[in-house]
Every structure is written in structure tokens, then in C-alpha cells.
Write a structure and sequence with these properties.
Number of strands: 14
Number of helices: 11
Mean pLDDT: 95
Strand order of the largest sheet: 5-4-1-8-9-10-11-12-13-14
CATH class of one domain: Alpha Beta
Length: 341
Amino acid sequence: MTHSQMHILLAGFLVADIVAADLERVAEPGELVLAPRGIRLSVGGHPANIAVDLVKLGLPPESITVVSTVGRDIFGEFIVRTLRSYGINLMVEVAGDSTNKNVILVVRGEDRRFHVELSSSTLMRASHVMGALERVNPDIFYIATGIIGEVDERLEDVLKRAKSLGSLTFVDTVKPVGKSWDFLRRALRHVDVFHCNSLEAVEIAGVDDLESAVDCLAASGVKLLFVTLGEGGAIARSRRYRVRQRAFRVEVVDPTGAGDAFCAGVILRLAEAYGERLRSVNVGEIPLAELCEILAFAQAVGASACTAPGTTAGVSRELVEELLRSQASAVMRAQEVVELG
């Protein structure tokens, strides 16, 4: 199977990101602080970021479809126009008068500060996502959960539909708003690949430490788990191995979108490694060497996203390959591997 024959369906929330990066500090009340890198409007939301990253990494845009919902406003129009400019297929409904927005402040050397309006994503319909599954019949079905209304509550049904079509299921999440993690816990047994950060892992598992959380999520049915740790690197956990790698080192301008870039790296590496065999591969049983390479590649893509303001501007195949050439050997020599019983 070539890249052009691969079909990837990316579902979830879309966001208009308004980003001020590399700030000296956050303004005090009544104070004016200049944004040295400007204030940028960009497309955000996991499926959009991953779609753009995949195109920038070399995947043909015609192989990628984004299914989501936007509002009836200039921000929704901007998101649709921008994604279409990359040649990405869209199955985007318009619902309500307002699109999700996120005002992101990034102080130099500090983590991001998010100020979010939730609107259009809460109006997403499960039938819209299931219709997209039937129409696209994807090799990989990725869905970002937590703030997508009815789709969250019917996540188990959506994943069952994807599995019935033979799709590899890849679930990502943000902390849910107005509900518990139960919708996700119920669905984990239908998940092939799951990504979250360390805080989310502990909350979802309902335990106090990360190692227990990783084991708990794997025991819930997830075949291949990735937990990103920010500056601490990342963990991969299959049925047979647990691997922890340190982070790749880059000059961090804006870490927004790094997790999505990481997921794009996982998707691309799986597609490149397995091609037409992907639908039949048990990702929980992949060999150790391949698992380590997937983790390192995904980390390099995530690191590249941190080198420029916004979610996708820093990502390029050239930078990723340079990071791998210069750092992958050291990262993999220092990795911790545990063989599981």
C-alpha cells in the first residue's frame, strides 16, 4: 500500500488559536506588554493539527480526511479555508453561531496558558462521525475526545463501528468538561492506540503514580499506549514492553501542538512501517526495535513543533530527519526498557 492508497480519518474538535508566543511576561492589570513574535491566528484542534503535520511530513493530502464541526462565523470559515489550502478532505458540519477559540499566552521558558471558549465542538453529532467512517472506510481512525458532546457519550459505539470496518483505532483526549472520565474508561477496550499526557493518565486510571497508571490503562484493553511527559520525554507501553525515552533537545519557542505532532509521528511511522498490512497488525505485539523507533520518530516530530509559534509551523520532514540524525542514537542508548511478563 502506498501513501496515496492509505486512508486516514481524523475526528474531533477544531479550534481557532490566537497565539502570543515568546512573551517576556503576562501583563499585570492595566499594563501593556509587547508580543515580540506577533499575535497569530492559526488553526488548532487535534485533528486539524495532525492533518497539517502529516501533509508537512510528506503524506499526500488526498489520503487524509478531517471530520468535525465549526460555528457559523469568520473563525469557522478561516479553519475550513486553511485546511482546504493544504488539499485535505473535509467533512465539516456547521452548527451554532460560534467556533471554538483558544487564546494562548506563552511566556518565555514557561508552559502555555490556555483561555478557551467551547462552542461548536459540543454540537458534534455521533451520526456525522459514523457516516464519515462508512464513507471513508479508513485504515486508521483517530479521534480526539473530551469536549465533543454527544460523540464522547457514544464513543464506545463509534469505536465499535470503526473496528467493524477493520480500522486501526487511535484515541487521544483532553480533560473532559462537565463530565467525568467514565465515557473514556468504558471505551478503552476498543482502542488499539491511545495517547495522553502524564496528568491525564493518572486521572483516567484513578491512581496516584504514573507507573501504576500506565499499567492500569494497558490492563483496560489498550494495545499500544503512549504517554508524553513534556520535557521529560515519553513512554510507550505495548503488551510486551515498556519503553521510556528522554526528550529530544530543541530551542523551545512554543510547545503548543507538540502532543498532536507526536501523534502525527506515530501515525506516519505506523503507515510507513506496515503499509497494506496495517489493518491486520496487532500493534500490541510489535517488536521492541520497531516500538523504540516509533517512539523516537514521534518524539522528534513533537520536538519540531516546539521550534516556532503556533501548532504546526515548526514541523517539517527535514527538521525531523536532522533531529533523528543528530540525537536519536543518544536518545535510544539512554532509554529504559522493561520486558513485561
